[in-house]
Amino acid sequence: QVQLVESGGGLVQAGGSLRLSCAASGRTFSSGGCGWFRQAPGKAREFVAAIRWSGGGTSYSDSVKGRFTISRDNAKNTVYLQMNSLKPEDTAVYYCADRLYSSNIYTQGSYNYWGQGTQVTVSS
Asked: DSSP string covering 46-104, please?
Protein backbone atom coordinates (compact mmCIF):
# COMPACT_ATOMS: atom_id res chain seq x y z
CA GLN A 1 0.00 0.00 0.00
CA VAL A 2 1.42 3.33 -1.05
CA GLN A 3 1.73 5.94 1.69
CA LEU A 4 2.42 9.62 1.16
CA VAL A 5 3.36 11.94 4.00
CA GLU A 6 3.53 15.68 3.41
CA SER A 7 5.41 18.12 5.58
CA GLY A 8 6.74 21.67 5.48
CA GLY A 9 3.58 23.72 5.54
CA GLY A 10 3.14 26.74 7.76
CA LEU A 11 2.49 30.45 7.99
CA VAL A 12 4.58 32.82 5.90
CA GLN A 13 4.34 36.45 4.85
CA ALA A 14 3.66 37.41 1.27
CA GLY A 15 6.86 37.30 -0.74
CA GLY A 16 8.31 34.57 1.43
CA SER A 17 9.20 30.96 0.68
CA LEU A 18 8.33 27.50 1.89
CA ARG A 19 9.45 24.03 0.84
CA LEU A 20 6.98 21.18 1.01
CA SER A 21 8.12 17.57 1.14
CA CYS A 22 6.25 14.41 0.21
CA ALA A 23 7.79 11.19 1.47
CA ALA A 24 6.50 8.19 -0.47
CA SER A 25 6.66 4.50 0.37
CA GLY A 26 5.01 1.23 -0.54
CA ARG A 27 6.03 0.56 -4.14
CA THR A 28 8.90 0.89 -6.56
CA PHE A 29 8.65 4.42 -7.86
CA SER A 30 9.85 3.79 -11.39
CA SER A 31 6.67 4.49 -13.31
CA GLY A 32 4.00 7.14 -13.22
CA GLY A 33 4.67 10.23 -11.20
CA CYS A 34 3.80 12.52 -8.34
CA GLY A 35 1.63 15.60 -8.34
CA TRP A 36 0.87 18.46 -5.99
CA PHE A 37 -2.67 19.77 -5.74
CA ARG A 38 -4.14 22.42 -3.48
CA GLN A 39 -7.54 23.30 -2.12
CA ALA A 40 -8.46 26.69 -0.76
CA PRO A 41 -11.52 27.17 1.47
CA GLY A 42 -14.69 27.07 -0.57
CA LYS A 43 -12.88 26.17 -3.77
CA ALA A 44 -12.29 23.03 -5.76
CA ARG A 45 -9.00 21.17 -5.51
CA GLU A 46 -6.68 22.29 -8.29
CA PHE A 47 -3.53 21.05 -9.96
CA VAL A 48 -0.29 22.78 -8.99
CA ALA A 49 2.65 20.78 -10.35
CA ALA A 50 3.71 17.28 -11.33
CA ILE A 51 6.87 15.30 -11.93
CA ARG A 52 7.58 11.91 -13.47
CA TRP A 53 9.33 9.43 -11.21
CA SER A 54 11.52 8.30 -14.12
CA GLY A 55 13.08 11.01 -16.24
CA GLY A 56 11.91 13.85 -14.02
CA GLY A 57 9.77 15.70 -16.55
CA THR A 58 7.79 18.48 -14.88
CA SER A 59 4.61 20.45 -15.45
CA TYR A 60 3.12 23.47 -13.69
CA SER A 61 -0.12 25.34 -13.55
CA ASP A 62 0.00 28.83 -15.01
CA SER A 63 -0.68 30.35 -11.59
CA VAL A 64 2.57 29.02 -10.09
CA LYS A 65 4.87 28.79 -13.11
CA GLY A 66 8.07 30.71 -12.46
CA ARG A 67 7.50 30.79 -8.69
CA PHE A 68 7.24 27.11 -7.72
CA THR A 69 9.68 24.31 -8.50
CA ILE A 70 8.94 20.61 -8.17
CA SER A 71 11.82 18.18 -7.79
CA ARG A 72 12.45 14.65 -6.60
CA ASP A 73 15.08 12.64 -4.79
CA ASN A 74 14.69 9.10 -6.07
CA ALA A 75 17.06 7.70 -3.46
CA LYS A 76 14.72 8.96 -0.74
CA ASN A 77 11.45 8.51 -2.68
CA THR A 78 10.70 12.10 -1.81
CA VAL A 79 9.22 14.89 -3.88
CA TYR A 80 9.68 18.54 -3.01
CA LEU A 81 7.74 21.65 -3.88
CA GLN A 82 9.82 24.79 -3.48
CA MET A 83 7.47 27.75 -3.28
CA ASN A 84 8.91 31.24 -3.72
CA SER A 85 7.33 34.67 -3.99
CA LEU A 86 4.28 33.40 -2.17
CA LYS A 87 1.03 35.31 -2.46
CA PRO A 88 -2.05 35.33 -0.21
CA GLU A 89 -3.93 33.51 -2.97
CA ASP A 90 -1.54 30.57 -2.54
CA THR A 91 -3.16 29.90 0.84
CA ALA A 92 -4.58 26.37 0.75
CA VAL A 93 -4.16 22.82 1.94
CA TYR A 94 -1.54 21.24 -0.29
CA TYR A 95 -1.77 17.56 -1.15
CA CYS A 96 0.69 15.29 -2.85
CA ALA A 97 -0.57 12.39 -4.90
CA ASP A 98 0.94 9.38 -6.65
CA ARG A 99 -0.17 8.07 -10.01
CA LEU A 100 0.80 4.65 -11.22
CA TYR A 101 0.59 5.37 -14.93
CA SER A 102 1.49 8.11 -17.39
CA SER A 103 -2.04 9.40 -17.73
CA ASN A 104 -3.49 12.89 -17.65
CA ILE A 105 -1.37 14.54 -15.00
CA TYR A 106 -3.71 17.48 -14.54
CA THR A 107 -6.77 15.61 -13.31
CA GLN A 108 -7.31 14.24 -9.81
CA GLY A 109 -8.81 11.04 -11.18
CA SER A 110 -5.44 10.04 -12.64
CA TYR A 111 -3.92 9.74 -9.18
CA ASN A 112 -4.21 6.56 -7.19
CA TYR A 113 -2.95 7.57 -3.75
CA TRP A 114 -3.14 10.78 -1.74
CA GLY A 115 -1.45 12.24 1.29
CA GLN A 116 -3.26 13.84 4.20
CA GLY A 117 -2.40 17.39 3.19
CA THR A 118 -0.42 20.20 4.75
CA GLN A 119 -1.70 23.73 5.40
CA VAL A 120 0.03 26.69 3.77
CA THR A 121 -1.08 30.14 4.89
CA VAL A 122 0.31 33.30 3.29
CA SER A 123 -0.42 36.54 5.12
CA SER A 124 -0.56 39.89 3.37
From this structure: EEEEEEETTT--EEE-TTTTTTEEEEEETTTTEEEEEE-S--GGG-EEEEEEEESSS--
Rounded to an integer, the average pLDDT of 87-96 is 98
The 8-class DSSP code of residue 121 comes to: E
**Segment 55-80, tens digit of pLDDT:** 889 999 999 999 999 999 989 999 99
Residue 40, number of CB atoms within 10 A of its CB? 14
CA dihedral of 60, 62, 63, 64, whole degrees rounded to 10: 30
**How far is Cα 92 from Cα 50, in angstroms, rounded to an integer?**
17
Question: How far apart, in whole angstroms, are the C-alpha atoms of residue 105 and residue 90?
Answer: 20
Contacts of 65 (CB under 8 A, 6+ apart): none
